[in-house]
Design a protein that fits this description.
By secondary structure, the chain is α+β, with helices and mostly antiparallel strands. The protein has helices at about 10-20, 25-30, 35-40, 45-55, 65-75, 85-90, 95-110, 125-145, 145-150, 170-175, 180-190, 190-205, and strands at about 120, 165, 215-220, 225-230, 235-240, 245-255, 260-270, 275-290, 295, 300-305, 310-315, 320-325, 330-335, 345-355, 365-375, 375-380, 385, 395, 400. A hairpin with a 5-residue loop joins strand 4 (about 225-230) and strand 5 (about 235-240). The longest helix is centred in the middle third of the chain and has 18 residues, at about 125-145.
């Protein structure tokens, strides 16, 4: 669909006929009070939540839904090359412990102020944690063990008290927050390997921009559209093209149409024991004016300590990029198996490699090692990816930081 032109289905008049406008007190929503939950449901303490969970049947401490999600993550993490990349790049002392200490110190030296000690982004507002935990505990009491066996949370009504006053489309628009820093250079690059480096840096750096707010965004109405004009002249056109399951379609255009980013995303949410898994799928394609094309995969997300402990968001598993025409692929793995155990989970290792266009899924010939942290930096053969139009390393974007 041409998202730049409104259709009858998504015009305000047509939408009003199907979905009568409901007045929303946005100012009150932005200042959510814990007392709102206390008044509408029994406010859960950490002890009562644990007691509720322990009454439900468990299988070796984990629920089936969590087992399935963890097995997908582990499958992405397992490849002999990953885990050894960092060991070969970090530290050259004779002591393995000294090498690990040096590597961990280098990663921790460049991190977002919102980063969790164990990895990922930590929740910043304690009241948001209380809200989320009380609502989730109420949902568990209502749905029982079916929810904790991996049932899709998107199929149940979510209490409005635990939602943020923005939609999924608005949150998705944030992923272009660093495009202007890296993608103009990617569009100008003639070497496909150099182009791949800029693409990887753009996508990894943007991961922090959609993390950190643990309140659920609102589901857009079917046919709802959003248009965004960015400061550099790039534009985004978005539409909610399916309600069940929720599917959001998007199309970004860079200045002068030097690059275009388009596709769609859908996701489902399942619970584990003190964890929540978000499985994202869909299509993401980045195209350039000279005909270049890079397809981009999806990592798997996990909210840790949803009932007790420090609530945080992690991206795990793998994230793959493929330039099929030039036979160039980048595969990165978060918290790779075989790597240093004391690394935070946001640390990743990867490789840019040349692959056979006839069999792009097979292992290729390594060209460049990739290491970094999605909450801090991205290195290519230990050379840091830097945006050419920002005075690094002091570039900040609000509470987010990426070198």
């Amino acid at each position: 669909a041409n998202l730049s032109k409104p259709t009858n289905r998504s015009s305000p008049k047509a939408m009003a006929a199907v979905h009568p406008p409901v007045p929303l007190d946005l100012q009150r929503m932005e200042k959510i009070d814990v007392n709102d939950i206390k008044a509408s449901a029994a406010f859960e303490t950490e002890e009562s939540i644990i007691e509720s969970l322990e009454t439900l049947p468990q299988d070796a401490g984990f629920y089936q839904g969590e087992k399935e999600a963890d097995s997908q993550i582990e499958a992405n993490q397992k490849r002999g090359l990953f885990g050894r990349i960092g060991r070969s790049l970090w530290g050259k002392s004779k002591s393995e412990k000294s090498n690990e200490k040096e590597a961990v110190a280098a990663v921790l030296a460049c991190r977002s102020p919102a980063a969790s000690v164990n990895g990922g982004i930590a929740i910043q507002d304690p009241n948001h944690a209380k809200l989320c935990r009380s609502v989730l505990a109420l949902m568990i009491r209502q749905m029982g063990k079916n929810l904790l066996k991996g049932a899709n949370v998107m199929n149940v009504s979510f209490p409005i008290q635990c939602c943020q006053p923005t939609t999924i489309l608005e949150v998705a628009a944030l992923q272009a927050g660093y495009f202007h820093q890296f993608l103009p250079s990617a569009a100008a690059a003639k070497d496909p390997v150099e182009r791949m480096k800029y693409v990887v840096a753009a996508m990894v750096s943007a991961m922090t921009l959609t993390s950190g707010n643990f309140l659920k965004p609102l589901n857009p109405a079917l046919g709802e559209t959003l248009q965004v004009q960015y400061d550099d002249g790039s534009r985004a056109f978005m539409e909610q093209t399916c309600h069940h399951p929720p599917v959001s379609s998007f199309s970004y255009e860079g200045p002068g149409r030097a690059y275009a980013y388009h596709g769609y995303t859908t996701f489902d949410i399942g619970f584990g024991y003190n964890r929540m898994h978000i499985r994202t799928s869909g299509l993401r394609v980045l195209e350039f004016a000279d005909g270049g094309r890079v397809s981009i995969g999806f990592p798997q997300d996990r909210w840790g300590n949803v009932f007790w402990g420090e609530m945080h968001h992690e991206s795990l598993g793998g994230l793959d990029f493929l330039d099929e025409a030039n036979g160039i692929r980048c595969a990165i793995r978060f918290a790779p198996e075989g790597g240093y155990k004391s690394m935070p989970s946001d640390y990743f290792e990867g490789v840019i490699e040349r692959v056979d266009a006839a069999d792009p899924a097979a292992e290729g010939t390594p060209v460049c090692a990739v290491t970094g942290s999605w909450v801090g930096f991205c290195d290519f053969d230990k050379v840091r990816a830097r945006a050419p139009c920002v005075d690094w390393p002091t570039g900040h974007c609000g509470r987010h930081h990426f070198q």
